[in-house]
Amino acid sequence: MSAARRLLLEGASDAVGFVAGALAGYGTALLLGLDLFAEGYGAASVAGIALVGLGGGLGLNLARRWRNARASRMGAGG
């Protein structure tokens, strides 16, 4: 795989993983009744923002694990 293609795959998978995770965190916050966009920074708003951040980080981590597992299979299997 060329370096440019590898970097494109890395950037795209990181972006998709982060956005998907952040959306999952946002959905979880909504299900829990936490309003991220409430005026001020109340406890519910901060907790919702934290869920979005945690979701984005988890999604990014999962995307990197997927990419590393894919690279291992490609290297071992050809």
Structural class: mainly alpha
What's the β-strand tally?
0
Helical content stands at: over 70%
Report on the biggest sheet: none
Summed up, the helix count is 2
Architecture overview:
- Keywords: Membrane, Transmembrane, Transmembrane helix.
- It is elongated, with a radius of gyration of 17 Å.
- The mean pLDDT is about 90.
- It has one domain.
- The N and C termini lie close together (about 10 Å).
- Helix 1 (about 5-30) runs antiparallel to helix 2 (about 45-75).
- It has 2 helices and no strands.
- By secondary structure, it is mainly alpha-helical.
How do the helices and strands line up, and which of them pair or pack?
Layout: H1 3-31, H2 43-77
Helix pairs in contact: 1-2
Keywords: Membrane, Transmembrane, Transmembrane helix
Transmembrane segments: 12-34, 40-63
Could you provide a short overview of the structure?
With 78 residues, this protein is an all-alpha fold.
Task: Spell out the key features of this protein.
about 0% strand, elongated, single chain, about 80% helix, 2 helices, mainly alpha, about 80 residues
